[in-house]
C-alpha cells in the first residue's frame, strides 16, 4: 500500500496578529472541514490503495475528520509513533520519521510558511504538497482543499510527468559559527532581543529584510520588497533591503488589516552561493515571519541564498496538465459536442 505523510499544524493561524491586526482565526473546526474537503478531492480521482500516515497532535484533528467523513476500504490511516508536545518539535520529529522510516511518497502540509519551514528541514527529496492555513502564506498554496486533494491524487496515480510539476525551492540559510537555520521566504533582523510572541508587527524595530521571492500581492514582511520589485519562486535570485528612517517610504501590509510605512534605504539582489553579512547588534532574527534566533552584539551573522531547498509540487500545474482527464481510468475523456448559442432557449 502506498503511503502519504500528513502534517496538520493545530496552532497555525492563531498567533498574536489576531490581536494587533485584523487577521481571522483559522480554528480547529475549520481545519477539520479543510481536511475532509481535501480527502474527498483525493478519493474522487484515485482508484488505488493509499495510507495516510499522520502527525499526532493534542487536538486529534485527523481523528475527528476520519470520524465525520466516510472513506472507501482502500483508504486507511496510521498515526505515526512520534510524540505530540504541541509545538514545532512535533513537526520536526514527524517529518524525519516519515521520510526515513515511514517511507512516504509525498508530504501534505496544512499550515503557513512557518510550518513548511520546519518540514523543509527534514523533508529531503520528498515532495511537499503545501496548503495554506496559517497567517503568512507565501510558500504554501492558497487553494481550495478539494482541488489540493485532486492534485495529489492525479500526481500519485501517475497522471503527470514529475519534471513538469516538481522543483527545488530556494531557501535563505543564515549562519554564525556553529549556529544555523533556514527560511523559505524571508529573514528579518529586528532590534528587539526577545522572542516573546515571535510574530513581528512593529515596523520601527525592523532593520533588514531578505527574501527568496516577492510580489505586490503578498502579505507579511516580504512585502517590504514586494512593494518595490517582483521575484518569482523560480528565479535564481533573491533580494534584500536595509530599513531605516531615511530612504523611500513604502506602504507595507504587515498583517491582515495592518498597513505601515517603512523606509527602504538600500535595495539589492542576492545570487545563489554569495553570502551577505547581516547588521550587527543586539536583536533577533525572524524566519518566515516569526522571531526564532536571539542575536548577541558580538555575533556576526550571514545569509546565503541557496537553490537546492525542499522539493515542492506545483498544484495548479498538476490540475492544468490533467484537464479533460477521466478520473476512473486516467485517460482523457470525450468532450460533448457543442454549437454556438443562437439566442433561443431550450434544446433544438
From TrEMBL:
InterPro entries: AcoX-like (IPR039065), ATP-NAD_kinase_N (IPR017438), NAD/diacylglycerol_kinase_sf (IPR016064). Gene3D superfamilies: Probable inorganic polyphosphate/atp-NAD kinase, domain 1. Residues 323-348 are annotated as: Disordered. This is ATP-NAD kinase. It comes from Candidatus Caldatribacterium californiense.
